[in-house]
Amino acid sequence: MQIKDYASLAEFRRLPRGGFGKGPFAILIAEDRVELASTLSHLMQLGFRHVFIAAPAGLDISPETEGHAPNTVSIIRAQTRRADAAASLVNALIPLVPNEWVHYCYNAEYFFYPFCEDRTVGEMAAFIAEERRDCALTYVIDLYAQDLNIAPNAVNLDHAMLDSAGYFADARRDETGHAKDRHHDFFGGLRWRFEEHVPKERRRIDRIGFFRAKEGLQMFEDHRLSDEEMNTFACQWHHSITATICSFRVAKALRSNAGSRYDIGDFRWHRSKRFQWSSQQLMDLGLMETGQWF
């Protein structure tokens, strides 16, 4: 039996509602082959029951799916470098998996949440549901290679670095200019330090990267959801759990873009730290919190 390969996003949308069973589910958006296998493996280790790999028709991803059961991985052929690629894919999946939890990421991105080494993503979803909340805010934390001479594309899992400081938030405002309750725009990392190379609308590092699908829910191109309560960083009565997506994507883009490649010889600065691939390190740095989950 072969892993299912859907020829187009339109074909995928026509699938029956609820046909994939129980989640949590993940969409892995493959922009290229860089660390696609390690990203898929990481998602499986966290306990996602089914991973949908979105990839263009010309991208051969069969080696990445070797060793995975056909009922745990599917391939969706779609354009993944379009600005609306993530929104299109997530919005196609939402009606197919009603009331199930969904995560989305790109290749060379790695989902971390408190205690993820010992607790499955399903356990985290159960805790969030008990808190009467349908989502977890995730911060995209930029990773980059320690030595760009060794890793010219800025991707090196064995010698990955991250910024230990420089993160901040601005109040998100409504149409009248008033600050919205529990809504912030978050910034930092390479998007902040090299902002001259990053369009203003792409500088935020917050995503609602883990949420429960429900009828009528839509994701916008800026990674926000149509349900305003699901865009908040915490519930009304106490702090909520937050998570991170540790990502080489921005570093990889800055090194591949002709407008920035020759301006950046090193991503390191005095607040760079070696990434330990540990949820405890991310919590110690204040990049995610447990909320009431102990």
List keywords for this structure.
single chain; 13 strands; 294 residues; globular; two-stranded antiparallel sheet; 9 helices; alpha/beta; eleven-stranded mixed β-sheet
Give a structural overview.
- The protein has 294 residues and is of the alpha/beta class.
- The protein folds into two domains: 1-107, no CATH class; 110-294, no CATH class.
- 21% of the residues lie in helices and 25% in strands.
- The protein has nine helices and 13 strands.
- It has helices spanning 9-13, 36-46, 62-65, 85-93, 121-130, 190-193, 249-256, 258-261, 279-284; strands at 4-6, 25-29, 50-55, 73-77, 101-106, 109-112, 135-145, 160-163, 168-173, 179-187, 206-212, 243-247, 272-274.
- The strands form two sheets. Strands 1, 2, 3, 4, 5, 6, 7, 8, 11, 12 and 13 form an eleven-stranded mixed β-sheet that branches. Strands 9-10 form a two-stranded antiparallel ribbon.
- Strand 2, helix 2 and strand 3 form a beta-alpha-beta unit.
- The longest helix is centred in the N-terminal third of the chain and has 11 residues, at 36-46.
- The protein is globular.
- The N and C termini lie far apart (42 Å).
- The mean pLDDT is 94.
